[in-house]
Amino acid sequence: MIRKIITTQYSVSEQIALDDVNVLADAGVTLIICNRPDNEEEDQLAFADIAKRAQELNISAIHIPFAGGQMQAADVTLFQQALEGADNVHAYCRTGNRSNLIWQAANTEQVEKTTSASNVKYDVVIVGAGTAGISTAASLLKRKPKLKVCLIDPAEDHFYQPGWTLVGGGVFNVKKTRRNMADVIPKQASWIKNSVKSFSPDENKVILEDNQEIGYQFLVVAAGIKLNWEAIEGLTDTLGQNGVTSNYRYDLAPYTWDLVQKLNNGKAIFTQPPMPIKCAGAPQKAMYLSCDYWLKQEELDKIDVSFYNAGGVLFGVEAYLPALESYIEKYQVNTNFSHNLVKVDGPNKRAYFATKNDKDEAIVVEAEFDMLHVCPPQTAPDFIRNSVLVDDAGWVEVDKETLQHTRFKNVWSLGDVANSPNAKTMAAARKQAPVVAQNISDALENKKIRATYDGYGSCPLTVERGKIVLAEFSYGGKLAPTFPSWLNNGTKPTYLSWVLKKDILPPFYWYGMLKGHEWFVKPVMREE
C-alpha cells in the first residue's frame, strides 16, 4: 500500500490488505472508507474482512461503493456525513482514483478547513518524484528504514527518459519507458500528489498549491527542469505535426521515428539550444540514429542533414570530439554553430535562427526543412526560480561537493535543478543521490557530513544503431570511466556500450537505482 496524502486529514490508496490496516492504525487513522464494490475482480478482499480487522484496532470502517465513472450525488452526501467529526481518514478503491474524486466532489469546505490546520511534519520532505527524488528517498530508507519520508509531486506517471532517444530511433517501444508513479514510490514513503507553491526555509516548511503547509526537519529539492517550449515562437502550435518533433517528450518520440522512416529525400534539421540542458548529447543522438537509418536505406545521399547548435562546439569534453567528428563527416552533416532556434513556421516548414554575421551584428537566418527535430531551451521550474533557494541564474544554490544548500543548512538539492556545475544527466543523479542520502543520515545523528560528489556525469552518445561513444567525465571535463579501457574504450564507439545502454541500463534503473541499490556509486567520504 502506498498512501497518497491528499490533505492533513485525508489519504487514499489502492486496494488495501489486512496487514495494511495495521499500518493505518500505527499512522493514527481513525476511519477507513471503502469506495469499491465487493467482487469487482477475482480474489478481491471483501470489505467485511477489512471492517473486522479495523474494529479489532478501534478504527471505524464505512462502505460507500460505486463503480468507476458512476459516482452519484447520494454517494457524495454519505461521504460528507462520514467525514463529519473524523480527524484522520483513509479511503481506498482499486487504484485510489475514485476515493480521490469523491473527496474532491464532497469537500470544498473541508479543503478550506484543513489548509489552516497545523503542519504535517516529516523527517525528510523531498520535492520532486523524478529520478533524483525517488533515488534519494530509496537510498535514505535503505540507511534508515523507519525514517518518515515524504515525496511531493503532482505527476501520475514516471518516465525513463533516456529511453526516448531509442524510441525516436525505432529501437524501443515508448510504453516501456513509462510506469505509474504509485508503483515506483518507495513503499515506506508517503506521497503527496500535489504541487509546491513556495518554500519557507526559515520556518522549515513547504507550502502547497492548496495552501497546506508541510513541515520538515530536512528538505531535498529535486524538482527537475522545465522544458521551455514556449520560448520558441510558433513551436507549441506545430509540435507533433508538419514534420516538427522532439525526443524530449514522451508523446513525440514515436513521431520522430515515423518521420525518419518516411523521409527519403529533402532537408532534415536538428537543433540544440543554449546550455544548460538535460543530456547535452541527446540532440546529436537523434541526428546520428536518423542518419544511420537513412544510410542503411541508401537514402542519405538524397537528404540534406544540418545541425544547428546555439553553442560553439560539438561537445564540451574534448576527448570525445574525434569520434563524434568522424560521424559528422560520415553522415555528411552540415554543422552551424552559434545558431539559436527562435521561431518555427510549421505550415510553411521554415525555421529561424538567431546568430551573428561577419561584422558581429545580430541577425536572424531562415532555413527550410522537411523534418525538424527540436531540443527546447530549458530553465528551472517557475516555483523554484521564484523562491529564496536560488542563485542569480535561477538554480538551487548548493555546495558542489556535499550538495548542501549554501545558506540553509538543512536543505539539499540534486539532479537537474541544482546549480552544481555538472552535466545534467540521469547518471549524475544516480551518483548524487547516495551523497545526499548519506549526508542527511549523518546530519540526523549530528555527525559531520563527509560524503562528496565529484561531478560525475555520463552521456552515452548513440552514433549508430549498435555503437555508442560512452562519454563519462567529472568536474572540469576530467575523464571518469567506469570500466577499464581494455574492456570498453569510452572515447571510441563500441558495441559493449550499446548493450549497456539498450539492455542493461533500463532494468538497472527500474530495479536498482529506484530501489536504493548503489552499485558503482558508493559515496566517497572526506578525510576527517
Automatic annotation (TrEMBL):
<keyword id="KW-0560">Oxidoreductase</keyword>
<protein>
    <submittedName>
        <fullName>NAD(FAD)-dependent dehydrogenase</fullName>
    </submittedName>
</protein>
<keyword id="KW-0274">FAD</keyword>
<dbReference type="Pfam" id="PF04273">
    <property type="entry name" value="BLH_phosphatase"/>
</dbReference>
<dbReference type="InterPro" id="IPR005939">
    <property type="entry name" value="BLH_phosphatase-like"/>
</dbReference>
<dbReference type="InterPro" id="IPR023753">
    <property type="entry name" value="FAD/NAD-binding_dom"/>
</dbReference>
<dbReference type="Pfam" id="PF07992">
    <property type="entry name" value="Pyr_redox_2"/>
</dbReference>
<dbReference type="GO" id="GO:0070224">
    <property type="term" value="F:sulfide:quinone oxidoreductase activity"/>
</dbReference>
<dbReference type="InterPro" id="IPR029021">
    <property type="entry name" value="Prot-tyrosine_phosphatase-like"/>
</dbReference>
<dbReference type="InterPro" id="IPR036188">
    <property type="entry name" value="FAD/NAD-bd_sf"/>
</dbReference>
<keyword id="KW-0809">Transit peptide</keyword>
<dbReference type="InterPro" id="IPR015904">
    <property type="entry name" value="Sulphide_quinone_reductase"/>
</dbReference>
<dbReference type="GO" id="GO:0071949">
    <property type="term" value="F:FAD binding"/>
</dbReference>
<dbReference type="GO" id="GO:0048038">
    <property type="term" value="F:quinone binding"/>
</dbReference>
<dbReference type="GO" id="GO:0070221">
    <property type="term" value="P:sulfide oxidation, using sulfide:quinone oxidoreductase"/>
</dbReference>
<dbReference type="GO" id="GO:0016787">
    <property type="term" value="F:hydrolase activity"/>
</dbReference>
<feature type="domain" description="Beta-lactamase hydrolase-like protein phosphatase-like">
    <location>
        <begin position="4"/>
        <end position="106"/>
    </location>
</feature>
<keyword id="KW-0285">Flavoprotein</keyword>
<keyword id="KW-0874">Quinone</keyword>
<feature type="domain" description="FAD/NAD(P)-binding">
    <location>
        <begin position="122"/>
        <end position="241"/>
    </location>
</feature>
